[in-house]
Amino acid sequence: MSGSALPVWLPLLFSGVVVSGGSGSGVGGVMQAVRVAANRLSARVNQVRFRVVNVGWVAVCFMMPSSYYHKGALWPSVTECGSTIHPVTALPSTILSSISEFLAYCLPEKAGLTIFPASRGLRRGRFCKMLAGEAVMAAKILGFSVPVGGLWAEAIDGLRGSVPGSCQVLVGKDACLAAIGRIDVLVDGLLDSADLERAIKLQALFVPFVGVDHLPVAALRSRQVQVYNCHGNAFPVAERALALALASLGRIVEYHNDLRNGQWHGFAAGHGRRDYWQSLQGKRCAVLGCGAVGQALAGLLKAFGCPVAGFRRQANAPPPAGFDLISDRLDDILVDAKLIFITLPLTPATRGLLGRRELALAPGACLVNVGRGDVVDETALYESLCDGSLLGAALDVWYVYPPAGSTMARPARLPIDALPNVVLSPHVGGHSAEAAAGNIRQTAQNLRAWLRGEAVVNRVDLEAGY
Fold it and tell me: Which pLDDT does position 164 carry in this prediction?
């Protein structure tokens, strides 16, 4: 065996390539051969990718979960070499040891690694047989730190066909915490820094909802843990935003409370314009955040004949359905808007995005927030509601939350919740049976794709924070 790369060959159990050595390019060629083969040649069998390299006097087989195929950090980019990999010298044991160390460094400890001594008489069939008998991928542990039973039980049962038989599945928070140091893949929305530090083998974290601002993002980024969230609750959250807008414009809560005390309004009370409520029909709406929730909301607003302008950082792409205008200039979106909907996540770029100056661009507007409270400066919001710069606000997200184990807390440091022109909602936009089912279904879809080595939607950009 000498010269350049042999064609790809397909034994029954795996696919790979044999790269043979000869004389020439030395250790640099070995490294290039290993890297090129690792990057370019793979086949999926039972959710495992097999790659085979034969370099000089060493045949290397490395087997890895298909998910690693997407983790570019493990396999540095290499310039394409066409169909030929440059030959390398016959290697002494010291060089073989270096190759072994190189591969051990590149491959995570969860992947199996076997190095076979090669010879000129090594036949492909015998090589295949050796691989089938001796190279075995270490078992993975999948943890579902979720409620036991119900919809999750159905989703997990449905996933079992996508999980390699050697994998172990743990269900329930207690079971996952007990084995946190051995878990490779975790479904959990509340992972904290202490548990992450113990999760030394964690490769991927699936958050079964949208928000990730409460996670130890910096630690996840430094550990290169893949994080995925889901948007299965987008329509219910958009529906909640619409309901809050209608409640605020329609003075629903105000009139409800008055009538419970016997106080009438409108015609029956002989009142005129002072008891008017406002219709949503045809009002200019600014939607900050054009993701799944923003897009669902834009579609709902179109039923009321509302022109909809959307704010997002990347404005070059065509507007999604339901939007009449997309811009990355916040001022352009806010000017003359009668409703401001916030669906943005909380990131360093969005914290305090709306202050006194921004709110003044839409005098008399109603602000609806189903994103995160701190996207709007608390003092600016309170003052704008008090002096009439804003007509009103309907808030599902807040500035203060109950401490762990309690259900009691005022939702803001300033008395926003005491103002008569504010509709209150306790962060329940995604808290419905339909939203839960959507999130579970999408999380299961994401995990199934990951296990199969397919592209997964909703990969969280840990640098951007969403």
Answer: 66
DSSP run (H or E) holding 300: helix 292-302
Low-confidence ranges of the chain (pLDDT < 70): 1-139, 164-166
Of 207, 144, 138, nearest to 172 (Cα)?
Answer: 144
The β-bridge partners of 185 are: 142, 204
What does the alpha-carbon distance between residue 181 and residue 204 come to, in Å, rounded to a whole number? 14
* pLDDT at site 165: 65
d(CA 47, CA 129): 20
**CB atoms < 10 A from the CB of 115, how many?**
17
> Residue ranges of the domains in the chain?
26-134, 141-232+439-451, 234-424
Give Dmax over CA atoms of the chain in angstroms.
103
Token duo for residue 178: 């007990």
The topology under which CATH files domain 234-424 is: Rossmann fold (3.40.50)
Output the pLDDT for position 43.
Answer: 33
Residue 328 and residue 315 in contact, taking contact as beta carbons nearer than 8 Å: yes
According to CATH, the topology of domain 141-232+439-451 is Rossmann fold (3.40.50)
pLDDT for 166 equals 64
pLDDT of residue 91: 39
